Each structure stands twice: as structure tokens, then as C-alpha cells.
Amino acid sequence: MSALAQEMRPVREAARHSVLRLDGLVRAYRQGPRRIEVLAGTSADINAGEAVALVGPSGAGKSTLLHIAGLLETPDSGRVIVNGRDCSGMNDSERTRVRRVEMGFIYQFHQLLPEFSALENVVMPQMIAGRSRKEAAVRARELLTALGLAARLDHRPAELSGGEQQRTAIARALANGPRLILADEPTGNLDPHTAEHVFDALIQLIHTTGVAALIATHNLELAGRMDRILRMEDGGLVEVGRGPLR
User: Fold this and answer.
1) In whole angstroms, what is the distance from residue 232 CA to residue 43 CA?
2) Are 50 and 213 in contact (CB under 8 A)?
3) Phi/psi at 94 (nearest 5 deg)?
């Protein structure tokens, strides 16, 4: 059995644990003389094997929260704990290592490298992390095949449809076996039919690999199909719904 096949065995309920803990996050910005508080003691836990929707109106702070959770931005106070490790006092190199080892990122615009094939786009982050080209190609091929792209491995992004590009971006985010996926409107640039197919592929991989995922979206229909829904409200997070957690 391949490493990916083993990784994709369904996650048992008992295996669920907190992968991302946001503890009392505070973040404010200055706009002239005004102090605008975006996060006001925000806390949440995101567990292994669950997809959590992050919803709220534009300007509510979803992107700020994702940037802080992904160690791309520092809160004014509060803690970000990733897989049991408090990242609050880390220096830049330590934060970079946690992002590289523990996290995968999916953006609204796929941000694939245009001069490389789908396979090469998924191989490169693995090689940067120290995996050999041969091992990286095996895993990239397995991930892309699991996402329905077996016949498109050698195609460059311009030769792929929007849905195929985003599925390649999902494979890239999962390539190094992260514990946590952070996604910012991953289907926001797709038509509804394509968005549904990409969403289904992403959720299936989350549930079968046991990765934790926090997914910002304006699509309330897709949010309702995730395991939990957290809404940004008055600088905090309110749980407003639960979906089909197995």
C-alpha cells in the first residue's frame, strides 16, 4: 500500500485532537487618530480531521485571523498554538519552519508557477523541504491522481481549467503532509458547478487524511456542508452551525 493510501484511511473519532488553538487573540490597527480593533480576544480550536468554515462580512477580520493563524502576522496579544506548540514567542526562522512543516495554504487564486507542469508545481515544495526528486514525484503523482488529475500531470497551468488549477493547488498544499490547512476563499474564483467539485475533493481529503482545516468563505451553502461554522462577530468567533462531521 502506498504512503498516500495509508494516509487516506478514514480518521477515527478518537484520533481527533486540537491541531490549531487560537487563544485570546487581540489585533488592532491605527487609521489616523482612530484605533480599529479587528480581533478582540478571539479564541477557537480546530481539530484533526475536521473542516471548519470561517464566515462573516467583508472587513470582519477573516483574512487577519488567517494570517495570524498561519504565523504570517503577529497579534498584539494572545497565543497561536500549533499541534501543541506555542508559537507566540518564536523568531522569524522558527515561524517559517512551522509553516513549512505543519501548514499548507490554499488561496482564492491558485498561484501556481506558470512555467512548470502540474506535477512539478507539487514536486517543488517537497524538494524545498528536503525530499528527493524521485520521492517527491511519487507523492505528487499520487495526490494529483487522487484529485482526478492523472491525465493532466504534464500540463502547465495555462493548459488547465480553473477547477484543475485549484485542485493542483490543493495537492501542493497537502504535498508535505501538513497537520493544518488554511484556505482563503478557495472556490471564490470558480463558477458554482466547478466550485462544488473542487470543494468536494478538498473536503474528502481533509476527512480521509486527518488534516485540520480552517476555510474562509462567503459561500454559505458550502459552509453548511463543513463540520462546523464559525462566524466573525464583534472581534470574536461565534459557532453558528455544525455540519456532517463523521
Assistant:
1) 11
2) yes
3) -65, -40
* Phi, psi for residue 6 in degrees, rounded to 5: -65, -40
Measure the N-to-C terminal CA separation of the chain; round to a whole number of Å: 24
Q: Which amino acid does the sequence have at 38?
A: V
Which regions of the chain are under pLDDT 50? 1, 9-14, 245-246
Per-position b or e across 71-88, b if 16+ CB within 10 A of its CB: beeebeebebbbbeeebe
Residue type at position 140:
A
How do strand 18-31 and strand 34-47 relate by DSSP bridges? antiparallel
For residue 151, give the amino acid letter.
A
The kind and range of the H/E element at 230 are strand 228-233
Q: Distance from CA of residue 55 to its chain's centroid?
A: 15
3-state secondary structure of 183: strand
Q: What is the grid cell recorded at 38? A: 479587528
Strand order in the sheet with 34-47: 34-47, 18-31, 77-82, 85-86
Sign of CA dihedral 210, 13, 204, 216: negative
Cα torsion 45, 97, 141, 106 to 10°: value is: 50
- Its pTM stands at 0.85
Beta bridge partners of 39: 27
pLDDT reported for residue 14: 39
Tell me the C-alpha distance between 207 and 204, whole Å. 5
